[in-house]
Design a protein that fits this description.
It holds the Pfam family MreC. By secondary structure, this protein is an alpha+beta fold. The chain is built from 5 helices and 12 strands. The strands form 2 sheets. It has a 6-stranded antiparallel barrel. Strands 6-7-8-11-10-9 form a 6-stranded antiparallel barrel.
Length: 309
């Protein structure tokens, strides 16, 4: 194969031309919104090539499944039966807990949590850039995917969608250094920000006061702040807490709950739009005291002033 850059006068012009093209592309991406549309269309063109590239791996997985021996299938069948029995017992216990939770909510007059719809997606390709942690999944604009959509696997939150084409989408993982997520401690409700470090096994919990009640093993869940990620989904577990008497903040590290390096199937969530509780009449009637409601004037628009003759 002939190298792209060799010694001589002409290759120097090639390097200069490539550098000028790169600078022009970066400037055009910052100044013109049409570049994003062009990128989405190019991604739609590249999608069949990505599918073809993933075919050998899918064929290998299918062949290994077909060629599995009978003893292994029998053992897996027994393990699955045991898991079914365990899950059935948990389901029965969950039914009683759900009924108890419903009675407590009725007693407290609390609002019901709304169900979140979702679609499934499968890993298509990995990003080749070693300085970013991004993946491409086989769902796109035709499936209703949008930029900023939360993504999770069977264990917890994986990341969010940052680019959408017609048939595929690009997902930024939690491990990326440019990804941040508002979380809270499941034990006491303290709220923090979790940011990626560029490593799949470590996240940083930012701006933790040295006197904050945070311990190793605490479960961090999404807080629902900023309205992008729904509340209550597992994100990470605190793995290390270092207190320095000379600094106001502690160094806290966490391990992601989701399997960022091994997951192949994902869920793309469609969280409902946030409710405007300021002008929600039912919320006001439920929360404000009746005496205060009787004093306040009704929430109606003032009458229009008549024009002077």
């Amino acid at each position: 194969m002939k190298p792209l850059f060799t010694q001589g006068t002409i290759p120097r012009y090639r390097v200069l031309a490539c550098a000028l093209v790169a600078v022009a592309l970066m400037v055009s991406e910052q100044r013109f919104s049409q570049v994003e549309v062009l990128r989405a269309r190019l991604a739609s063109v590249v999608t069949p090539i990505q599918w073809l590239a993933s075919l050998p791996g899918d064929a290998l997985a299918w062949s290994s499944l077909v060629l599995s021996n009978q003893q292994q299938l029998v053992e897996e069948n027994q393990q699955l039966r045991q898991q079914i029995l365990t899950l059935s017992q948990r389901t029965q216990r969950m039914a009683s807990l759900t009924a108890e939770n419903l009675r407590l909510r009725e007693l407290l007059h609390a609002a019901k949590r709304r169900d979140i719809s979702y679609i499934t997606a499968e890993l298509l390709t990995l990003d080749s850039d070693p300085f970013t942690h991004q993946v491409v999944v086989d769902r796109g604009r035709r499936d209703g995917v949008f930029v900023g959509q939360p993504v999770m696997d069977a264990s917890g939150i994986v990341g969010q969608v940052i680019g959408v084409s017609a048939y595929s989408s690009r997902v930024l993982l939690l491990a990326d250094a440019n990804h941040a997520l508002p979380v809270q401690i499941n034990r006491n409700g303290l709220r923090f920000i979790v940011q990626g470090t560029g490593r799949f096994d470590t996240l940083m919990v930012r701006h933790v006061s040295d006197t904050a009640d945070i311990r190793e093993g605490d479960l961090l869940i999404s807080s629902g702040l900023a309205g992008r990620f729904p509340a209550g989904y597992p994100v990470a577990r605190v793995s290390r807490v270092e207190h320095d008497p000379g600094k106001p903040f502690a160094r806290v590290e966490a391990t992601p709950i989701s399997r960022l390096e091994r997951a192949r199937h994902f869920l793309l969530l469609f969280p409902p739009p946030p409710r405007d509780t300021l002008w929600d009449e039912s919320f006001a009637i439920r929360e404000l005291p009746k005496a205060l409601l009787s004093v306040l004037p009704p929430l109606t628009a003032p009458p229009a002033e008549e024009p002077e003759p």
